[in-house]
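Is zinc ion placement plausible here? Inputs below.
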Amino acid sequence: MNLKQMLLPWWGEPLEAPTHVSTRTAPHAPHDSPTDPSGFPVSDVSSDGMTPPPKFSLLRHSVTAEASAPAAALSVFRHPSAQHEMLLGQVLVGFELLRCKRRSIGMVVSPEGLTVRAPRWATWNDIEQALSDKSRWICAKLVDQRDKGQRQAAARITWEEGGSIPYLGEPLVMMWAPGQKGCTLVEQQHGLPGVAQRVLHVGVPAAEQVQWAAEPARAVTWMREHVLRWLQGQALAHYRERLAHFSPAMGVQMKALKLSSARTRWGSASVDGTIRLQWKLMHFSPAVIDYVVVHELAHLREMNHSPRFWQVVAEALPDYEVPLEQLRHAVIPE
Ligand SMILES: [Zn+2]
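Reply from A.M.:
I modeled the complex. Tokens:
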């Protein structure tokens, strides 16, 4: 096994078999709970022999300079409160060490980095060994957290004139429409390449705008609230149309559609025929929305995730794995 083989597999997320798949948000989703703060999930550590050899050095000095990273290190992850560093394979990890009353050495990877909690009696050798034993898990979690942070930063919406939101997978530029009511989507007929083709005119009364000079935050609130309300209306219309499109061929009939704001699920289906869909799916491409629509309609035939269920999905949407994979890494823009 060469170095590349040793390092890369921990970083990529393997495509799971469909039996593990649901429209629950992916592990990368923004509001997924972070690593169990109570301790260290040993079951997360794979025993497939991909763990790097325990060749590392513990640098027991205070962390001060970037220069402390060995030139050969591929990645550096440093907790803002790091007091110690350790080289795990080719990854330099700066971690926060907290001595506390507990029985074992625990590790938590948060968006900030690695925190190690150790009993007062634990020696440096104990800590060194614990980190070495879990190096594969630690590195995978650190990479996950960094990727998630980057996706969240990219998905941040600036609620101001000229800012844009992703709408059906494409940028939609927001502009004020003084004196108008509500929001109006305008398709640009002769857009330039690379320039947004669609503009959302956000209505605002002149009396409201007058107050923004003194209270600029009101403009942000106005735009955010009105655009999101508009998006909910669009979601209802779009989902209705897509449900009606797929239902006949799938041999199912939905009784009611409800919009959901659930943070942990993209959709759900009840035995009474009610389908709930997260309205912020409207930020994603039509293909991704179709996948969630088909997934929930398929539950009206099979209330489980059995092979039979996935067959129903595949019959309606043969290429469903492509949007499913996109959904796994999707981040809700905020
Ligand atoms: Zn499901």
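Short version: The longest helix spans residues 217-250.
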